[in-house]
Amino acid sequence: MKIPKLRIGNLIAEIPIIQGGMGVRVSLSPLAAAVANQGGIGTISSIGLGDIKASANEYVRTAREALANEIRKARSLTNGHLAVNFMGVLTNINDLIRVSVQEGIKMIVFGAGLPTKLPVLVPDPSVSLVPIVSCARAAKIILRMWDRRYGRITDGFILEGPLAGGHLGFSVEQLKHPEDYSLEKLLPEVLEVIKPFEDKYGKKIPVITAGGIYDGKDIARMLSLGASGVQMGTRFVCTEECSVSQEFKQAYLDVKKEDIIITKSPVGMPGRAINNRFLKDLEIKGKMKISCPYKCLTVCKADTSKYCIALALLNSYFGDLDHGLIFCGQNAYRVNKIYTVKELIKLLLDELKEA
Ligand SMILES: Cc1cc2nc3c(=O)[nH]c(=O)nc-3n(C[C@H](O)[C@H](O)[C@H](O)COP(=O)(O)O)c2cc1C
């Protein structure tokens, strides 16, 4: 079987695999570059890179410099395809998108919010704009809005289903019945709503599925259903190139299925995480003390938010898991080995060919 390439706008990846953006500091330059070197698309997460103890102005400046630095480091490691991931709820999102484009990034992935102004911020058609959606309705709203306002459409969509790690575009109630929102159900609906826009603009809008995709067999199934590629997060956490602490990776290796839970995050969305000491303490205390010298999320309120998610994710990154939130996908309990990115991608492609 010939492995299909993944085309998103002008960008053509040799293999149909995107390593998903993972904040805070989970997907940095070593991981993204390693994936790009294997022919996939490596995504740097723009989230939580600044000095979160600094003043507001300093935070914005350090975040911008850290992201520029991360992009340059990745570029020094690969000539392959790199993307940067953004969350719509970041207060400094425009600044971060601008610096990414200045640093030569050719693919912008936008989640956790509607990308209403993205085409204005990034008018250069050589930069692919790829929103993350969790249903056909959201894809249609974005396409209709961009078509009417800007006379352009997206270069692709990431369709993230309910089994993904991190923040999820579903309600807690919906997440109790993930089978009702499976990628197998969502994908045909998305393919249908994008069709009139593909016809109007005479170009394909690739849909990349994400969430719970674990092995080559899963990839084969997604491709056979009409996905142009897949985005994977959880599997890439347990790679040597992933920047998180050893303790973070060990938590994935140790976790049992029943300890992977849905938790409400201060971002206002549910998220999937490991039920560790931090979340259990939070359950008892109800609220942690927050001292926030700035506001990194538009939706966060220091006096009412239960905890500072930037700090909690940063603690896990550094290995202080008792005070840290550990995001993971529903399949994290299946991970039992740390691979190099090269080994992992070879394994996935071998399984894909076999399937
Ligand atoms: C630790 C972790 C952090 C994540 N952080 C983000 C993020 O900051 N922004 C985002 O759009 N997606 C985030 N995701 C989602 C991934 O990019 C990816 O779409 C998802 O994990 C795919 O599902 P999988 O983990 O089952 O492969 C995160 C996922 C994980 C596991």
Describe the structure using short key phrases.
single chain, 355 residues, alpha/beta, TIM Barrel, 2 domains, eight-stranded parallel barrel, three-stranded antiparallel beta sheet, 13 helices, binds flavin mononucleotide
Can you tell me about this structure?
There is one protein chain. This protein has 355 residues and is α/β, with parallel strands linked by helices. The chain folds into two domains: 6-244 and 337-354, TIM Barrel; 246-323, no CATH class. Helices cover 39% and strands 16% of the residues. It has 13 helices and 13 strands. It has helices spanning 29-37, 56-77, 93-102, 118-121, 136-150, 172-175, 183-201, 216-224, 234-237, 246-254, 277-285, 309-318, 341-354; strands at residues 6-8, 11-13, 17-19, 41-45, 81-87, 107-111, 128-133, 157-160, 166-167, 207-210, 229-232, 260-264, 270-274. The chain has an eight-stranded parallel beta barrel with strand order 3-4-5-6-7-8-10-11, surrounded by six helices. Strands 9-13-12 form a three-stranded antiparallel beta sheet, with no helix packed on it. The chain has a two-stranded antiparallel ribbon with strand order 1-2. Helix 3 (93-102) links the parallel strand 5 (81-87) and strand 6 (107-111). Helix 2 runs parallel beside helix 3. The relative contact order is 0.15. The model has no long low-confidence stretch (mean pLDDT 96). It binds flavin mononucleotide. Residues 20-23, 26, 45, 47, 85, 87, 111, 132, 160, 163-166, 210-213, 231-234, 237, 327-329, 331 line the site of flavin mononucleotide.
